[in-house]
Amino acid sequence: MNAWPRLGSTRPAAFRSTASLAVIAIVAGLAIPPMTTAEDTPAAAAPAQPAAPVRPVDFDTQVVPIFTKHGCNGGGCHGKSGGQNGFRLSLLGFEPGEDHDHLVKEARGRRISVAAPHESLLLLKAAAIVPHGGGKLIEPGSPSHEVIMRWIAEGAKPGDPAAPRVARIEVSPPELVMKPGGSQQLRVVAHLTDGTTEDVTRLTQYESNVPELASVDTAGLVSASPRNEGPPQSGTVAVMARYQSRVAVFRASLPLETPADKLPAPESFVRTFVDKHVLDGLVALKLPPSPVCDDATFLRRVTLDIAGRLPTLDESRAFLAETDAGKRDRLVDRLLASPDYADHFAMKWSAILRNKRANDELHRHGSYTFHEWIRDQLDQNVPYSEFVRGVIVASGETGENPAVTWYRQAADINQRVEDASQLFLGLRLQCARCHHHPFETWGTEDYFQLAAFFSRVGKKPGLQPGEERVFHSRGTAQASGPKGNHLAAVLGGKPAALTPDDDPREALVDWMTARDNPYFARALVNRYWKHFFGRGLVDPEDDMRLTNPATNPALLDALSAHFVEHGYDMKDLIRVICRSTTYQLASEPNEFNAADRQSFSRFYPRRLPAEVALDAIDRLTGKTTSFAGVLPGTRAVQLPDPGFANHFLTVFGRPNGDSACECERGGEANLAQSLHLINSTDILAKLADGRAAALAADTARDTAAKLDELYLVAVSRPATPEERASVEAYLASHAENRVAAWEDVVWSLLNTKEFLFTH
Predict the structure, then answer these.
(1) Lowest mean pLDDT among 93-97, 324-328, 548-552
(2) Single pTM value for the model
(3) Rounded CA gap, 51 and 49, in Å?
(4) Domains and CATH numbers, the chain
(5) CB-based burial of residue 226 (10 Å sphere; 0-12 exposed, 13-18 middle, 19+ buried)?
(6) What is the distance of C-alpha 543 from the center of its chain?
(7) What was the pLDDT predicted at 438?
(8) Of all residues in the chain, what percent carry a pLDDT higher than 70?
(9) 1-42 confidence digits (pLDDT tens)
(10) Which DSSP state fits 60?
(11) 3-class DSSP state of 239
(12) Is CB count within 10 Å lower at the N or C end of the chain?
């Protein structure tokens, strides 16, 4: 870190400096706070100026932020529902009027002593002079202590409605390149509504989104992690700064010290605009990427990601035999044109649209038809904007319009606005239902204005047993919130011009799908990026906000613009992603990028989704899984909803459709999965009388040919010489029971990471 100036004063009684270099005025009067640099060279002396008149302490803008800074009004303390130990504050201070009443009027006023401010229970507890469950939060004599004591001495008055409010905050520096072990003190300035500014560094809350790369303390000092043993770390870090209801972000880049000749030249890396932006990020971080993967790896990876299945034996042989440079692009096109693409992505969308049966028999028809509707939309490549419109404005009942099934799961107005905003805008607004979003600009007014678009949705019994008819009722589009009714308005906009006869949902979708909407295209692009890379440019993929920025903002902007310009074409978006060099990089790390988790310098391996894994095991073993209620031969990825009991799918994290979050799908490996693969009766039954028995009975081919076929089915490549020698030795030593020996070979291959992961 650059040396910070030392602070001094020609009148020390007037100022004192804190450890975080904040200058605190002690008394009013004349004072000159000169600065000296680290080399003790005096800065030019400023002429003495009279200090500005001291204004009374304002409760809303000066006292409440102290409670927030020290965690008093947090969800784990007095800010939680019902408060704590008889004392309640509004969460994060978003209701200062209520906080004042709790402090001054409750408990017979014993928390505040205007006659003896220093004896106020509020200060005695905070300083732990009187036993306090939260421990010592404020040091006596500290700036926070002095502000609160002064407020009490001035009469403990409520906030002044005419006092200037915070319009925005600014953090400086806004971004910086940092070295391992380096540090940087942040400064936060609040811009008030009267045009003045105020340094609020010491009252701001800070949080790093990647603390393992760089942490931040309560005073705003950012410290980059030192270079430790192990793979070198690089990446970008966002530090959130929050003061009152305003947020700002500091971004730090932590590059490696890699020689320039280790980085690829643009002409060898860039195939699409995706690669250009990725390479720009890698060059900035001096992070060399892994090489491009081989054909077998790409074939298996892209087939699993687009079609949700293993390549067939014929596909593997044909693709590996091709030699021209365009074969990978043609493979992507073939997969997108196949019915398997629609099956796979219908599984994805059906899960996050919460298509499930509340009652197995009554709702089976609705869930089946909704899944088929989703699949048809994808198969016909209906523009994403029209797909979303079909869901949001759906009316009728399932027999005539299957998309109304979404309203069965999103049963009330809160679920509708929260699911729609999370799915289609990438915004998690659940917090704003009760209070201002702690990490965003949205409050309860924004929430209920958006909810008002769903306020005219009605339901009545349908013709089918157990089904409902969804309709639009005439009236004013408004929603009732904690502080009254709110007319329909889009986020950041004015109330919509709607007549009582208008369906407000149409106006909502018009705004969502407009070319200049800042959320709609970005949310889908980011969701699909995560599908293919295992991590979103913004992660989690449906939590897009200022304080959770993209690791590569330029790439997210470019992909979003391309998606809009190409008419919200989902297949085109997939094509752009899968044709890029970035997607085709090997998963094996080099000496520089083993620790990379955000810059896409290599492909990040991930475990197969539950349904895809079960289908892959069926393909490898030659034994299919049967599901009651669907046609024979239906694969797991083709199941219309999660209402099919299957232990494997449960253990491997199939989502239940209880939320709109893709996080409901379990992606982590665990002991139960390992035990199931090793010795469950299901797996043992699949091994018997399947592919292993056929291989054992095949005497027309030698072992090497049969092994190559087995490996092509499992991992889309022939066996290596080492693998072939090892397996042939094992089979030779168990010649007395060839079937059991081949079952062991299939079982061992089934349990490899190469088989169970997309890599």
Answers:
(1) 93-97
(2) 0.84
(3) 6
(4) 1-49 (no CATH), 59-153 (no CATH), 166-254 (2.60.40.10), 383-512 (no CATH), 606-758 (no CATH)
(5) exposed
(6) 4
(7) 60
(8) 89
(9) 333 333 333 333 344 444 444 444 433 333 333 333 333 434
(10) I
(11) strand
(12) N
